[in-house]
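help with this.
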Amino acid sequence: MKVVILLLLISFRFLVVGQELYNACNSALEICPNQTYSLNNLAANKTLCPGCEDDFTFCFTSNNSIWLTFTTNSIGGDVQVDFSNLVFSMNIGQDDALQATMLSATVPCNSTSYTSVGTCESNGNLPFSLTAAALPPNTLYYIVISGDFTGAGITSAAECDFDLLISGTGIDRPVPSVSLITSSLNICKNELFSANAILTNCPDTSAFNWFVNGVLSAVTSDAFFQTTELNQGDIVSLETNCYSFCAEMVTATTPGISVYSFPIDAGPDQIINSGETTQLNGSTSALVYGWSPSFGISDPSSLTPLVYPTSTTTYTLTASEAGCTLTDYVTINIEEELIFPTTFSPNDDGINDRWEIGGVSLYPNCFVKIYNRWGQEIYQSIGYSVEKSWDGTGNTGKLSEGVYFYIVELRDENKQEYKGSITLIR
């Protein structure tokens, strides 16, 4: 029973502690300037073989190492790494001191290429610092941290939680910022709004994420954004990252945009028969307005003129108020009389080769079915156009001359249905 409990306790310790990703050199944690990191080497181990990552003796011999990395800035200079708030595991026989040093490597994580950089610490049980002077610019360095494992009665290497901060002229960098230059903070409804991001101390930008009221609206590769879809009080904001190493997000936000609008409505769409006249039913609060096109209309300057289009026409109502111009549209559809040909001749002479229904284009959801004289369905189509029209073929190929029958369901609000016969001539 005691053995089972001991095994459970050991398993629980590994589940709770586990190994950090930065336990290995090839997954070293990138450390950014002037940020405090809470780190630990709990349950860390070492990789020790000729040339492996822990095969070095600079200042100390690695026991349970963790790996960090940093890159100097474009100027280079001094670097300091501060260790604070050291809290050691206090198990029987366990050491209570940290070891740490900085390395450069011409071959990543290959100990044969390491060079010791600056100071090192072999017995740190109180807050301590590593320093390195005059480091060259744009260069990658490693920080390796291990637990001490020396002294009488010590049976396991030190494990520790600690805070780490890196700073200095060799890694510090200017604080990036961004501001937005807008075309205007006062625009008309549907007017083009543009914003240009002005970046300071921000090299190597990522994509620009543009938001309207916190909702992603566009992703651009440059610092420019345009839209015609803003409403009163909308707020435009930007997010982008600066620096390729230790990316730092910068943001900027506009005040609420003032968008001037006024009521305008060209009225509902209509369907009329060919040759008929109808009245438009426009409305607006603006004092200046007009319709286009101006032909086939009784008075383009009236909100409710009579129109007599010869074909389906879309009329535009344009109105102006307080320096803003808005538009709305209405379409008058000419309902053509449905014409169902009684004969057609699909003989590939280019004349009357398909059974085309005149005026059916106004009913895009119509359902067309064709049967032979024995009531067998040989053709059907949802929607009917020249391209979809029946060409005199069925499942067995070209059909023979004779009489066939159709059912056409318009699927309109009146649920109109037409039936009749077709004579196919070869």
DSSP finds one helix and 33 strands in the chain.
